[in-house]
Amino acid sequence: MSLAVSLNGVRPDVPGLLRRHWPLLPLAATVLFLLAPLPAGDATASGKVGPADAASLLLVFVCAVQALRGRVRGLTPLGAVVLGMPAVGLAVATMTAGDPYAALPGFVRYLQVFVLVPAAVVLLVRDAGEFRIAAGCFVVLALVQGAVGVVQYATRTGASYQGEDIRAVGTFGPGDVMGMATVVAYGLVVATAVALAPGPARRIRRLAGGCALLLVLPLVLSFSRGAWIATLGAAVLVMLLAGIRRALKVLVALAAAGVVLVGGLGVGSEMVAERLTSITQVSSAPDQSVTDRYTMWAAAESMWRERPAVGVGLKGFPAHRDGHASLGLSSGSDTAGAGQAYVRQPLLSPHNMYLLILSEQGLIGLTALAGGWAALLVAGARRLAPASASGSGSGGGAERIRDCGLIATGLFVWQLTDFLYADIGGPSTVLTGVIIGLAAWWALPSRGDGVPGGPSPAVGCGAGGRGPGPEGSSGR
Description:
Elements: H1 3-7, H2 14-21, H3 25-32, H4 51-68, H5 77-95, H6 100-124, H7 128-155, E1 159-161, E2 164-167, H8 177-196, H9 202-221, H10 225-242, H11 244-264, H12 269-279, H13 288-306, H14 317-324, E3 333-337, E4 340-345, H15 353-389, H16 397-400, H17 402-418, H18 429-443
Antiparallel strand pairs: 1-2, 3-4
Helix pairs in contact: 3-4, 3-7, 4-6, 5-6, 5-15, 6-18, 7-8, 7-9, 8-9, 8-10, 8-17, 9-11, 10-11, 10-17, 13-14, 13-15, 15-17, 15-18, 17-18
């Protein structure tokens, strides 16, 4: 029995659903295990394997087993190259590092996030129904973490911000202040895409719209300028892709919610206004955090100029930082609150993913990673274009899964934008791999795929395999 039947109020066949979708359980766990609170100090501890990371390793293992049994989607040679290309740059950066053994943990982490997890998602997510299950997990995670963050602000039990314990950080703690903002932003983008897409039922779109509005509040209370910028950019893009009239309705609703929350109810109005103003003062009157970021960006560029082809090696930025940074760099950032005592966090990365790759992996690594991301973005946009041009009333296969294209594009654009002023680190890093996988699922067709949502051959679904999915075909 399909998921669509259960949504219509019919009692679902739980054993049948588990038999059909059990390979997705590690994927759902990879996302939802981030609901588990971590002990103080574990959020950014190097070498720590959290529950979500363990689930992602299980996801890769299940994918390998299913691949050996011939029960995964097939890929074109081009798709295999795009997914596997980052491994080449990572191997080069590891072998050419000053201390290859010290670079090895970085190689494993990058391989997990940028190669293995994305490939597992692409191969295991069989159709649009399973894509929606994965995307729905992001919304559940965002709603729960956002609720914890709002309670932290209301009860003054959050992370320290301007001398008050009011910053919403969810269960991630003050050591990973971007964690909650990141997962809430993911959920908001997914909910916005579903609310605007013509494919889902009206009640589903309304529910998604309500979730998007609810998630605005914890995102605001995170006081994360980077998350605000990335979310605004991704949401506006999704709105434009969905249609101008739909976009205007959502913009009016979001503007009204902002006026009520910040203006009418006074939710952090002074601090939010100050935080927004600081975005335009990054060059004229930057605060210390911005000064530190500029200094580390300059240090990363200096490292790259020293070894332009291969960089200083994975995990090499902290060791080379002091030799390339100016005296304007502070010793670290202060963190406290949310159940944790005062801790001075060292600055061990440039807080720009592209510069981090450039400094540690050089032009070879940046071309392999960012080049693959650019290819996925272009291919995904081209694949979404026919669905956008078909109109909301076409009722064709492309229209039925247009929400998947909007979700994949919105999440991927958010991530690529966030990489301009953030890099990997902390428990939520594993979600980066899931998002790249969802973007690749949309952008890279299976062998024999035609128009998105149209019929495709049953790849690895022979006797004993998973049968036709909710969309009525074995492909997307």
